């Protein structure tokens, strides 16, 4: 029986690092942002490598949801999901088939990082309001309260936080989750050349950010608009 573990995160978090960590387990397969092509199709957004994404993935959310709940690639299947990809027309009933945890990060850090890759930043891009809604939906559908972990806590003490997360998910902690070989993986989304440069050079978790960046314009507006849902989730975060 395959354990399906869905991680929900906004962009420019440590979501791909967490994917690397889980993929380095001996019992786990990973899937990278499976709803991305559907999101680009519906929104029409001109993201980097848009054509490659639309070619590489199904554009119909129903096909994606069916695969995520029926295929069984390994004893543990880690699914990395971006909260902003979950458009209103998607029936979230498939979430009842999974365990969930939610990865959050200070939206000021997210906005500053996102602005380095994209010309404009919106609160919808950061996805924290959607993340809070998905948290509540996961709680309703599964009858359990999912774990929430903050990126800064993970970076300060990766082993302790991963042990706490694994305990919450009823998984045995695997020391392999702490380190991995540098470089790209076949499991990376086709968009990796634009977004994953830092992860491709990593062999483990990096250091926490010590300074809050100074923001202006749309990045500042997006961060401020995202602060309330972030704080709601932060109050619920798992600690080691």
UniProtKB/TrEMBL annotation:
Cite a single Pfam family from the UniProt record: Sulfotransfer_5
Which GO biological process entries does UniProt record here?
branched-chain amino acid biosynthetic process
Any single GO molecular-function term of the entry would be:
hydrolase activity
Keywords of the record, alphabetical order, are: Amino-acid biosynthesis, Branched-chain amino acid biosynthesis, Hydrolase
Similarity comment: family membership:
Belongs to the class-IV pyridoxal-phosphate-dependent aminotransferase family.
Q: Which Gene3D superfamilies match?
A: P-loop containing nucleotide triphosphate hydrolases
Origin species: Parvularcula marina
Asked whether the UniProt record includes Membrane among its keywords, one would answer no
Name used for this protein in its record: HAD family hydrolase
